[in-house]
Prior knowledge:
Oligomer: single chain
Low-confidence stretches: 1-32
Number of helices: 3
Largest sheet: 5 strands, mixed, barrel
Helix content: 10-25%
Mean pLDDT: 86
Order of helices and strands: HEEEEEEEHEEHEE
Number of strands: 11
Shape: elongated
Amino acid sequence: xxxxxxxxxxxxxxxxxxxxxxxxxxxxxxxxxxxxxxxxxxxxxxxxxxxxxxxxxxxxxxxxxxxxxxxxxxxxxxxxxxxxxxxxxxxxxxxxxxxxxxxxxxxxxxxxxxxxxxxxxxxxxxxxxxxxxxxxxxxxxxxxxxxxxxxxxxxxxxxxxxxxxxxxxxxxxxxxxxxxxxxxxxxxxxxxxxxxxxxxxxxxxxxxxxxx
Length: 212
C-alpha cells in the first residue's frame, strides 16, 4: 500500500515548507489560505483525526495481513483491493466472512484510531448487513452546483495526481463534483473551495470521526 502523507513536500522552499507543514498539522479551522493561490489541493494535507473514526468497507486479509478497503474492490475470486492497513484485527467471533486459500474477507464497519497510515481497531467490527448508521446531511442542501460539465471533468482528471493514494473516486452530478477520499477533516474541502470556488466540489471522507 502506498504510504500516506500529511505534510507537504519541499518544492516551495524551506520557508514555505515550515508554513504549510504547520497548516497541515493544525485543526480544520487553519484552512488553506497559506497555500499558493489556486494550488491548495496537493499542497495541504489534513491532520490525522484526534478521536476515533469508523470506516465502512471490505476487510481483506491475505495470509494474516488485514486491510480495510474503503474504495473500489475488484470483482475477482477472491476479490482484490488496496486499503488501509489494520492493526489489532482479529476474526475471532466475527461472522460474515468468506475464505479462499490464504485470503479471507467480509464487509464491515470498523472502528478505531487512525494515524494517517494505519487504522488501529478498538471495537468489535459490525457486519455491514447489520450496520445502520445515521445518514449524513446533504452538504449541497439539495441545490445545484455552479460547475460546468467541462470544468468538473477537468478537475476530476487532475485529482488522482493531486491527492495520490488518498483519492478514492469522483463523479460529476447536478453541477457538483463529488469526491471521495480516505480522510478529510475539512482541510481539503476548504482547499477545493479556494481553488475552484464554492459550489463546485464536495469532498467526502470515507473515515468519519465519532462524536465525543
